[in-house]
Amino acid sequence: MTTEQSPDVPPKPVADYRASLNLPKTGFDMKANLTQREPAILARWKTENLYQQIRARQHTRGKWVLHDGPPYANGDIHMGHLINKVLKDMVVKYRTMQGHDAPYVPGWDCHGLPIESAIQKELGPKMRELSAGEIRLRCRDYAMKYVKLQSESFERLGILGQFDKPYLTLDPAYEGGVLDVLGSLLQRELVFRQRKPVHWCTFDQTALAEAELEYSNKKDTSIFVKFTMDLNSGSWPAAWGTKPQHAHVLIWTTTPWTIPANRAVAVHPEHQYAVATYEHNGPQVLILAAKRIATVMLQAGIAHYRISDSITGADLIAAGISYTHPLESSRRQPIIPAEYVTLDDGTGLVHIAPGHGTEDYQTGRKAGLDVYCPVLADGRYDQSVPEFLRGQSIWQSNEPIVQHLAAAGLLFHRQEIQHSYPHCWRCRKATILRATEQWFVRAGGNSPLLQQAKTFIEEVQWIPAWGKNRIAGMLETRPDWCISRQRSWGVPIPAFFAPNGEILLTEKSVRRVADYVRQHGADSWYTHSPQQILGADQWVDTALTAEGTTVAEHPFHTHELRKGNDILDVWFESGASHHAVLEATHPELGYPANLYLEGSDQHRGWFQASLLEAAGYRDTPPFKQILTHGFIVDSHGHKMSKSQGNDIKVSDALKQNGADVLRLWVASVDYQDDMPCSKELLERTSDAYRKIRNTIRYLLGNLYDFDLQENQTVPQEHSIDTWMLGRLAAMTAEVHKAYNQYEFHKVFRALYDFCNVDISTIYAKAIKDRLYCELPNDPRRRASQSVCAKLLLYLVELCAPILVFTADEVCRITHDVPGLKAMFGDSIHTHTFSPPPQPVAPELLAHWETLMPLVQDGLKQLDALKKASGLGNPLDSEAVITVPPDHPMAGLMTNYGRELEDVLGAGFHRIIPGDKLAVEVIDTREKYPSCARSWKRRPDVGSVAEYPDLSARDAAVVKALSQTLVN
RNA sequence: GGGCUUGUAGCUCAGUUGGUUAGAGCGCGUCACUGAUAAUGACGAGGUCAAUGGUUCGAAUCCAUUCAGGCCCA
């Protein structure tokens, strides 16, 4: 210890009383050093097998299950993972400490395109030489690598769960569970087969996913085509004037080759449509959007034309006029509504080919149109098109079609354009949209599945409440669910195809395959024969014919069957987890789960998939509560992205701050909204962490000689201890309420303010004198220590779900203090919350309500004295408290005076009668001597002759101590 | 473009059924202490409650529009 003093500081008093004080002592370091300390704690948890210990613990309350939504097993974890997993962990830890059995089984989504693409990239052209089975093996290794990597990252964040037995969607038991759900949907006749346009490469003859498209510029012929209206149908709108002899609707397209597949023309119901009339070999009458007429006429070089009044698209549809297919004069086709029609280009009337466009398809389905696709896998027209096109490649057909239209007088105008067009990422050739047979779940319109899902929504508690509205809106407009994908890495749709085109996919056959997959894994679909899989030479079952009808009791010869190549949409896989995990891979969890907790994007994703699949599997929803959180944004509220350079890497943040600080940050922001994050914000959180840590350190430091059994002392009624206990009771209630409603930012706020204001600013300051200066066993000291022990207990308990490492560290420190050993038991994480603290009598709290303003006033006066006369230390002042004799507190002020002196930090106090309850702070540097031990200036310093430099209290304490020393 | 959603001091959050000069903590600035000390305490400065318009005796709070974000679609 240094004894150096600067020359202008007066020499220290002769006697050094420091040793006679009870100064704080603790092994709990001020410096957290989380980056070093946390891994050590983590290692200990692993050796102790903490997760299993918690499972084996006596649970005073029932089971409570948070079912983990599986992150994708690809890449490092990012801030989104952090927020999600930490929120989940805080919930689980809170429920555990409430006494629930709250197991946490983490899961991973292991199948799907991103992994298959990564492997494809790795392998390059070699990919084509590999069988689906071989590709799947590599995909599996890839997925498992990232499961391990992410698993370690999650654990490093203090997330506790069954990481040694997670659920994986590539687990055969899980895959079997997925097929169980598919079987159940088949049983309820909710699965059907239908054409739908998908991106298609005619060179590779394969379907492409959105992610496999590369957009680049392409030259095309765009054409304006006149579709001849059938003026015998419907009724000519009066606003368009007298009905002409001939009229045409005018459409625009950049893909002339899709004209053969035209099945309708779409208009926007709210846009205005008019008639443009001009002369060209007689009067010409065109229908198009009023706003497009000028542009279109200019493009076609027609200078003179007349425009009629306009009507809305809705009125045009209502007029009910059909038109003639430009290449097939016998076809009459309708005009239908479509909201997506724009007036940015074209004519405001859109050529609809449901087999060759996604929007065309959707629009067509609503209007009940045939999904007609005359294009074969290699890009040639089939036999259903006009003769001049049969067998021709679509890539060579634009010109013949344009010529044909021109010859028929239907070509209004043509121009060459350059536009962004999707190309195949492998062969770089232009792709098309082509309708192919896909599997669907009947989940739109008035499907019973959808009805059931809607009733489920009502039975679930949505947090925040608007989540219900959001998902309800999504269900309202949702189409049937296309569950098939033309990929390799996933759970196969176990359909068998007979040589005559009959298909076997029934509840019975799927259940058989499910069992087979459970035994041999889904890879067996690719490596074993239909005979092996079905386990018989003949399989009698319902057959689906190529025409879409069913034939019951149809005998299939299994050796003739071919296995289908499609896999299930990965959302179907994860959406089956309510069965595949809660009942199949981890039946100890049980159905349903109490809570699903994910980002708000999962209203469309996992929540909806789960809801729909559960609706097709049973009659109760898979979750009781749904909690959603927002997304991480930067300090300006913009989304984080690598390309913007405003992203924060979890590994960096972890190195910089430690897991507990990151967890505290998660707790501190309102997750219902977007969550801003920046280095500065984490720095703030770090400050908050240090404050909490120091508060705990102060409490611990003053309990070094306290024994929970021996020294518990009830505080005197008028003591600041009582005020503190009142605050503790209020804080505890507030925090539990917030935890129960998952409002962690309120938990954080309450705990932080409690440390900052109630303990640090007010209480800790007030009790210093009695803790440090009184005899160790003095009742006032023991009472305050009793309160400190309570503060420590509740504070650490309530912090534990958030500050998992620090709480554990505190718990270990208490083990080293003999009197505190029993405080938290073996581990804070197997410990349950203490019963709420005893409430404090309201009248006692009311006393402090009236006294605290006096303290505020006193502090202002101290500040004024400091500025006016350099009074630096409040102990060099006295508080003169005036109280009217008839004031309700008058009789009590003798008790409260001493407490006020301490709360204010003054050296002395006097109570005098006055006309109002008030305090006056007086500089006593010239008035009283200072006690060398307590540093308080008071009149009784020197009153004990033996100790001329001490106040009466300190003299007595020192005397008593010296006597015990002698004995 | 559509559905849902957010916008209060530099930051994170409070602001009850619309009602006097809009609150807290942090951060910042100044000062004090040196017996919680890479701590602690005191005081202080910060806001036309995103903007505009409306309803009202009165609006951060209700309504409309706009602007700027976010998620999901198109």
Computed CA radius of gyration, to the nearest angstrom: 39 Å
User: Helical segment tally?
Assistant: 28
Structural class: alpha+beta
Largest sheet: 9 strands, mixed
Distance between the termini: 30 Å
Give the helix proportion (percent range).
25-40%
| Secondary structure tally: strands | 33
Write down the overall mean pLDDT. 92
Strand content: 15-25%
How is the secondary structure organized here?
Elements (H helix, E strand, L loop, with lengths): L33 H15 L1 H7 L22 H19 L9 E2 L4 H11 L8 H25 L10 E2 L3 H16 L3 E11 L4 E3 L4 E18 L17 E6 L10 E4 L4 E8 L3 E7 L3 H8 L5 E2 L3 E2 H7 L2 E3 L7 E2 L1 E3 L11 E4 L5 H9 L31 H10 L3 E14 L7 E10 L6 H12 L1 E3 L2 H11 L4 E2 L1 E2 L10 E2 L5 E2 L2 H14 L3 H4 L2 H5 L3 E7 L5 E8 L4 E2 L3 E2 L1 H6 L1 H9 L7 E7 L6 H10 L7 E7 L2 E2 L16 H8 L1 H10 L6 E2 L2 H23 L18 H21 L3 H30 L5 H21 L4 H13 L25 H28 L7 E7 L9 H12 L3 E6 L4 E6 L28 H15 L1
Parallel strand pairs: 1-2, 6-9, 7-14, 18-28, 27-28, 29-30, 31-32
Antiparallel strand pairs: 3-4, 3-17, 5-6, 5-12, 5-16, 7-15, 8-9, 8-10, 8-11, 12-13, 17-19, 20-26, 21-22, 21-25, 23-24, 31-33
The chain binds one RNA strand of 74 nucleotides through α12, α21, α23 and α26.
